[in-house]
């Protein structure tokens, strides 16, 4: 979603802002703009379209002198993508400029009030109410003014604000939208995400909800909503800027697919100690683990899909009942929280609005919460009672790959830990499973080595209109992910079905040459899924099967077979996902689409 950058320092601001915004492009946007104080006034340039347009308009920022500025990439919510709706937004005298990420839910009410007071709105955005409200309350004291405005806002916001009569300062504030602050010798920064500042500094500050920061070129001062100074500790970012760059790959998605062996190993290895699984960050005693009566797993999109896998794994291994919920449904369905409930929320970004709201709903009901999160210091990581980080490193492509794979690892580890503590998994069985887990990175590597076969297959399906993914049990869970991956980056309609459900309606859509991808990795279900494969083939479908090495029986029923290395039955999704990711990638590439930034999508969905 929208991206914010701000800079105040010794150097020309505009090129720094443009460069920072380019590192936030992955979030998804349709227009961009910057505002810079040039020594006399705040100058603004903004336009619909990609950053390239803004770069051309400003000659790479060179036409905008000045060392203080704010910038923005906009993902349209209120009002179409247009020059006028792009941020920053000005007050009437162009003395206040604002960039905003989030949604002001009561903006209509505020807009009507302001219009009655004579304010004239030029855009359709909710953001414009902010700048007019700031204008209305402005008394020469930015802090007081910002807090007055905050008290009147409902919804979510991260704001970067400049006041013409405080030209040596930039202000920022957040509520339920991400914002980080960076400090360097050459000046200070605000940004929606770490990659935007990483070229300049590794020392970043995560500010909490309804906290503010005043930046000057050589100082940072943090405040709470009562305008009291507070202290915020910096976090040193360990990962390198190269981790957030393409490193020779054509697209981030392919780079991230190839990073999976390392990401899986990094998430797994620190939690394996002396043939045991140690998850210190869980903060639960064995007694508490034994007392878990029920688990809710909550997420959106791919994170939800890993939750579906986790349900099979946790129920199968630890025999604890699991309910998996889409966060957007969970938060409004009035769920029943009983003593002994554990709520696990899963999120790569740690900022997904619905997942965060679901977490808060759980916390408000007094149950223990655990976040499985990739972005260190994100809102979910900070608000959950416990956080288990996935060590995937920065994920830039909108379509998740390595974060998905590491979420699976975290879930396997939890399931095995719970099962062992509850004594439904013997030490010997657990050690055998640990050995299988340790093999996953090299098995993923092996599958990546066969990418040409999948690329070749994908190229045959560039013009296809509909694809179905089928499987049973855990294979159904991976079908959900395979289908989402394909549709989000290739714009091909695809659906995932529990194979046994096909004949209850969907089979009517199968016609000559419809592509059906069947995942068949669960031995006890081989025959059942193979019957479903027969059913669709009889009706003309072309079947791509993904199955275990040795299951050659499948060749009699499927048209094209991809074999996976042998692993524990609970871990097969970690391998089956690789050909499915590669298939989507190569279809998207073959169609000439923007693989990393599919239309209409944002990496981090920070609005409801
Ligand atoms: O950051 P999160 O993991 O909370 O994001 C959840 C979904 O928005 C995300 O998985 C989305 O479905 C991806 N585009 C899938 O590739």
Describe this structure in a few short sentences.
By secondary structure, the chain is an alpha/beta fold.
Write up this protein:
With 608 residues, this protein is of the alpha/beta class. The protein is 34% helix and 24% strand. The strands form 5 sheets. Strands 3-2-4-1-10-9-11-15 form an 8-stranded antiparallel beta sheet, with helices on one face. The protein has a 7-stranded antiparallel beta sheet with strand order 5-6-7-8-12-13-14, with helices on one face. Strand 13 (220-223) and strand 14 (229-230) form a beta hairpin. It is globular, with a radius of gyration of 25 Å. The mean pLDDT is 94. The protein binds 5-amino-5-deoxy-1-O-phosphono-D-mannitol. Residues 300-303, 347-349, 352, 355, 398-400, 484, 488, 604-605 line the site of 5-amino-5-deoxy-1-O-phosphono-D-mannitol.
Unreliable residue stretches: none
Structural class: alpha/beta
Q: Which ligands appear in the coordinates?
A: 5-amino-5-deoxy-1-O-phosphono-D-mannitol
The proportion of strand residues reads 15-25%
Q: How many beta-strand runs?
A: 27
Backbone shape: globular
The rounded distance between the terminal residues' Cα atoms is 11 Å
Q: How many H/I helical runs? A: 18
Rg over alpha carbons = 25 Å
Spatial strand order of the main sheet: 3-2-4-1-10-9-11-15
Mean pLDDT: 94
Helical content (DSSP H or I, runs of 4+): 25-40%
């Amino acid at each position: 979603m929208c991206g914010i950058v701000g800079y105040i320092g010794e150097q020309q601001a505009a090129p720094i802002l443009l460069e920072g915004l380019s590192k936030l492009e992955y979030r998804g946007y349709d227009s961009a703009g910057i505002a810079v104080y040039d020594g006399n006034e705040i100058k603004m340039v903004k336009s619909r379209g990609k950053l390239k347009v803004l770069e051309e308009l400003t000659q790479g920022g060179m036409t905008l002198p000045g060392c203080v500025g704010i910038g923005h990439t906009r993902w349209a919510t209120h009002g179409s993508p247009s020059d006028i709706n792009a941020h920053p937004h000005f007050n009437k005298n162009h003395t206040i400029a604002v960039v905003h990420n989030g949604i002001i839910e009561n903006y209509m009410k505020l807009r009507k009030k302001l219009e009655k007071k004579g304010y004239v709105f030029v855009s359709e955005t909710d953001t414009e109410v902010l700048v007019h409200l700031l204008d209305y309350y402005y008394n020469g004291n930015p802090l007081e003014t910002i807090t007055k405005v905050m008290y009147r806002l409902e919804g979510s916001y991260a704001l970067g604000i400049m006041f013409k009569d405080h030209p040596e300062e930039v202000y920022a504030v957040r509520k339920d939208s991400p914002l980080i602050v960076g400090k360097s010798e050459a000046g200070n920064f605000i940004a929606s995400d770490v990659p935007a500042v990483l070229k300049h500094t590794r020392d970043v500050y995560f500010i909490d909800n309804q906290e503010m920061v005043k930046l000057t070129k050589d100082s940072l001062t943090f405040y709470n909503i009562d305008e009291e100074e507070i202290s915020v500790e910096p976090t040193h970012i360990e990962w390198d800027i190269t981790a957030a760059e393409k490193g020779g790959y054509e697209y981030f998605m392919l780079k991230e697919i190839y990073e999976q062996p390392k990401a899986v190993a990094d998430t797994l290895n620190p939690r394996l100690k002396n043939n045991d699984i140690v998850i210190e960050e869980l903060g639960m005693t064995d007694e508490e683990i034994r007392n878990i009566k029920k688990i809710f797993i909550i997420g959106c999109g791919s994170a939800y899909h890993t939750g579906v896998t986790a349900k099979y794994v946790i129920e199968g291994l630890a025999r604890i009942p699991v309910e998996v919920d889409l966060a957007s449904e969970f938060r409004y369905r009035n769920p029943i929280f009983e003593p002994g409930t554990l709520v696990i929320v899963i999120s790569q970004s740690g900022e997904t609005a619905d997942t965060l709201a679901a977490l808060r709903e759980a916390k408000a009901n007094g149950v223990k919460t655990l976040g499985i999160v990739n972005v260190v210091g994100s809102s979910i990581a900070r608000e959950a009672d416990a956080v288990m980080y996935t060590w995937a490193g920065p994920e830039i492509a909108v379509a998740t790959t390595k974060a998905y794979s590491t979420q699976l690892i975290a879930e396997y580890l939890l399931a095995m830990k719970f099962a062992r503590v509850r004594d439904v998994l013997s030490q010997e069985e657990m050690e055998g499973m640990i050995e299988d887990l340790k093999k996953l990175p090299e098995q993923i590597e092996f599958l990546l080595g066969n990418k040409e076969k999948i690329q070749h297959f994908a190229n045959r399906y560039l013009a296809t209109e509909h694809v179905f993914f089928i499987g049973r049990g855990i294979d159904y869970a991976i079908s959900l992910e395979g289908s989402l991956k394909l549709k989000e980056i290739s714009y091909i309609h695809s659906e995932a079905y529990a194979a046994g459900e096909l004949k209850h309606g969907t089979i009517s859509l199968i016609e000559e040459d419809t592509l059906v991808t069947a995942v068949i990795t669960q031995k006890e279900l081989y025959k059942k899924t193979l019957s479903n494969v027969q059913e669709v083939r009889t009706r003309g479908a072309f079947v791509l099967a993904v199955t275990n090495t040795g299951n050659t029986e499948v060749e009699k029923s499927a048209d094209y077979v991809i074999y996976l290395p042998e692993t524990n039955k609970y871990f097969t999704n970690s391998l089956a996902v690789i050909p499915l990711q590669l298939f989507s990638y190569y279809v998207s590439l073959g169609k000439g689409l923007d693989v990393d930034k599919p239309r209409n999508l944002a990496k981090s969905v920070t609005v409801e």
